[in-house]
Write the structure tokens for this entry.
Amino acid sequence: EKLAPEHGVMEDYEVEHAFPVIGLRTMLLNARKVYYEGNNHTTILLAIEDVTARRAAEREMQQLLHQKELLLEEMQHRIANSLQIIASILLLKASTVQSEETRQHLREAHKRVISVAAVQKHLKGTSLGEPISVTSYLSKLCESLADSMIGESRPITVQVSAEGATVSSSKAVSIGLIVTEGVINALKHAFPEAKEDSHIVVSYAETGSDWKLSIADNGVGKPTGGPAATKTGLGTSIVNALAQQLDASVELASGPSGTVLSVIHAVPVSDLPRAA
């Protein structure tokens, strides 16, 4: 019997079942009920489709994804080991050179390699494309930086406030490196002398597509005169480059009560969609 839309109404569900045929082919059975107006009986439409190639492609895709995950995990492990080796070599070389300037440069390079290793460590195990909790990520990162760079003789705390936001893994890498540079710079310059309640606050906040990352300290502030006030260091260049990758701007405010480094991403009003 020929079925047309005006003769019958299809029920809004499907029943599908795939089964192997003597180990050779995989068939897909599709069953659908059709109800007729003014008639008590129903008709069942059956369709059988050979999905052997599709199922084989799906299995191959799953295997490729599994191999990719294994390769990514192995690559992360090798990168972590390589960074630790490079950091150890730099630190060892710093202890053998005679020039104090060279020794300082090697120690700075060691800190930056450690910072990259810290960022990589806290992203380890994250699946590609999986959103990352900023609060957890920055808390672990700052805790690691504090443990490695703040001694018992320096009572400095590092706090994180991120309001439960999530970011992509690629964005998390840049944010982590910016935070690392900001924290390292604050620990290096903001507290030349020990004082009570010395702290660094790392905060991240989102409003729609806009977001703001800031690293604030309550230290002595940036020098207001002399060469040190106008000198642009490697850390500043790194932060500017990373901010540019994020399509963000960098602002620095400093005074007697401390320094605030802000990285701001704001969508221009002209780029916002307009209501029809």
